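Why does this matter for the project? Reviewers at the last site visit asked to see concrete outputs rather than summary tables. In response, this paragraph embeds two records directly. Each consists of the residue sequence and, immediately after it, the corresponding structure tokens. Nothing has been edited or filtered.
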Amino acid sequence: MPLEPPSARRTDLDWIRVSAFGLLILYHVGLVYSPYDWHIRSTHTFDWMREVLLVTQPWRLTLLFLVSGAALSFVSSGKTAAAVLGSRAARLGPPLLFGVIFLVPVQAWIEARDKGSWSGGLMGWMAHEFAPAGLADGVPVNHLWFVVYICAYTAAAIPLLALPAWRARLAGALERALGGWRLLVLPAAYLIAARCWLYYQLGITNDLLHDGYNHAQSFAAFLFGFLLARRDSVWLGFERLRWAGLAIAAIALPLAMLQAAHPGGGAFHEIPRNSVFALDQWAAIVAILGFARRWLTGRQTRTLRYLNDAVFPCYLAHQTVLVVAVWLIRPAGLPAPVEWLSLVAVTFGVSLAIYEIVRRIPFARPWWGLKPIPQPSPA
């Protein structure tokens, strides 16, 4: 199979990124029916959704952070650290600001109305949230915490761009350390230790300043992708280990589901449950990266180009669309399967419709994470 040169766009990672964000939407729709205290829930809730969510919960976000780190490596090629920092700030800053001001408050207002802590209108809620007292308590970012973390991790990686020799040494040492079977075992051991120790003690908060476990896994994945994106031996290692990763994940996932469902699943300080969770986490990532490397390298299509452009605006829009859809559809009392299909269709459809609108409006594009429309070259 021909391999892409190190400087080429990694279409396998593009397919993974698009697919993972699509699964994120399905995951959030699943939370509507889960026993977890999400922003808004259906009248239909099912305890078994806790186990269903485990199909993607362990690995999806970690994989996205890894792919985001690799993307930073590719977009920084041939650029100075200052130029990369400026371009990333220009690409991520406006959507984050726009989302916090206009998208997240709609979710927060509906959640407050639904849970009985607010009875007024949206404008009153926004005035309350953005008043000095509301700002002192912090502004909700909801699903945009991912963008906040990518901004922070990018800033943390900038010194490595300014010191290319150090970056090369670090990447080379990591590449050697993860040769052969160690690519499967050592990251899994790290994630198991982090899950058993930090997660057990701290949990996950999605609060940048108080989220030790999340940083231990997510920033590590981001750096992994950033440092090793161009080390082809590592990606060939994923390809060789893809079946082993799939086999381990196929065993770990049902075991994790049993532990989640069983009343004694948290025994022994949750060490068995957290170990299986983390093992499934890395094994699934190895399998996904390996099979994508095998089958999706060089598979550039018009569909992929379209979805690559659409994925960030759809990510920004999807949770607000979903929360509003639940708020409007729930009173109809539809059967659970019909309601679920309706929420999936509305969330995907309206998110893509928003993308189709904003991509045609030049001044709106930067606020939705889109690059400016290319200007035609002079004749």
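We now turn to the second protein, recorded in exactly the same manner.
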Amino acid sequence: MNLNKIKKLSGDASFRIYYRKKYSNRSSIIIYCKKEKKSNLLIYDAINQILNQHRVKAPKLISQNYKKNYIEINDFGDLTVFKILSKRKNNNLLYLKKIIKLLNKLQKIKITTAKTFLNSNYKIPFYSRKKMINESNLFIEWYLPKFIKGKNKNIIKKKLNKIIKNLLNKLKYKKKVFVHRDFHVSNIMITKNGLGLIDSQDAVYGNIAYDLASLIDDVRFPTKIEEKNIIFNEYLRINNFLNKNNFKNDFEILSVLRNLKIIGIFSRLSKRDKKNKYLKLIPYAWELIENRINNNRKFVDLKIILDKNFPKKIRKNAN
């Protein structure tokens, strides 16, 4: 493949590099990935197969050269729901309600195994408690050391780790559903045939509230409290089998832990990978956390330790 003859596209927070390949009457996307290529190429296609089997539009494989670190997939274009909603001239709630319907389709997926293009079987993993602890610890490992030094650093790390474990113990819903794990408006595409979903390689089976928390408390797309509540209530209206208090409990815990994780990821992207553009999103991630933990009894211990060690001055600083 001669990459000089195709157009390079803007990248994301992963190790993937994207190119658009033009044909006479269509185009395709080349995903090149040398590091962590199993997840970003092989597993990505396996998950997309499962999505398409359940009438969730996802890119289909056109060709692959795994040895040379790339796959070729359908081109969904450049129009994301994020771009539509960012114009603020559209009916945002109408689109968000369509996304709720998409989320419901995802959560009905029962297939757990797919055949990869290398003829191996891939089984979607469970979102284990250990994995969720490790993800939340990204905040502890990559963000915390920027502001807390010396012996105090290890003390606070242990306290935060204990608080995170206690919060996970408070989750109510044990039944696992399909979780995209990065379900937000930048990963939902506007196609000719409806909404399409990308960036699905990290999918797991986990808590039913996780993807809704990703959508409503999206660090990339600020929304008003009123909008958040409308979408939350719309989801509950459609899924009226859920206990509202139990679901809200899980939603709030997962939102807070996810945004702590995101602060850690953005800090790691800056320090390890020299991708500094995500740092500007950290202050809003803090706002999302504050919105959920303020005046909320289950977050008392977390609020105390965060307020003491990460005051407003730090939270408003993108660096």
